[in-house]
Amino acid sequence: AQSVTQLDSHVSVSEGTPVLLRCNYSSSYSPSLFWYVQHPNKGLQLLLKYTSAATLVKGINGFEAEFKKSETSFHLTKPSAHMSDAAEYFCVVRIGGKLIFGQGTELSVKP
Amino acid sequence: NAGVTQTPKFRVLKTGQSMTLLCAQDMNHEYMYWYRQDPGMGLRLIHYSVGEGTTAKGEVPDGYNVSRLKKQNFLLGLESAAPSQTSVYFCASSSFPGQLAKNIQYFGAGTRLSVL
Predict the structure, then answer these.
(1) Phi and psi (nearest 5°) for B39?
(2) Each residue of B25-81: pLDDT tens digit?
(3) Does residue A3 belong to the interface with chain B, where contact is any CB pair within 8 Å?
């Protein structure tokens, strides 16, 4: 069975400190993996995607994620958090034409 | 660019009432999807369509019906709303996955539905 697990339901960081949002997946196939962000009362926006090219993927707004097959992980990072990063983040695995979403991680950024 | 447009943005229903959510995309995408988002559960796929005139069940299809009469529109219907259907509904579309690496789903802004 294919699934994706986000290890933290809520992460709180101070502005200017690093962000780490953890995601593990299980898939019988070589997965396509994504991170989406959802700001309050907004739709979902694609942050970045991994599709079997480079294992380190750079996205928008300074975010990046590293695909580690040995650890079945696709953690999202950012060197320095900004107040505007406060949002909910979803790790997603794609199987065929369908997306399977993680439970979401709410990121809070303190001044 | 409009992208994916959902109407309405908000709706309150009484138990037993019916309604239709409309999703429209202007990107000529073949695939369209309806998801529901509930706290702590991420997004779950309700129904999807791989082209005009086709529909298929997703993870949580019970209590919902869909239609794809036109390529650009994907309708989600609730025939008899229940409180358990209180949720935020998202529509998405994507191009035909002949090149899976480019098959990104684009999402609408969501519809917040409350069933009393």
Answers:
(1) -55, 130
(2) 999 998 889 999 887 777 888 998 989 999 989 889 999 999 999 999 999 999 999
(3) no
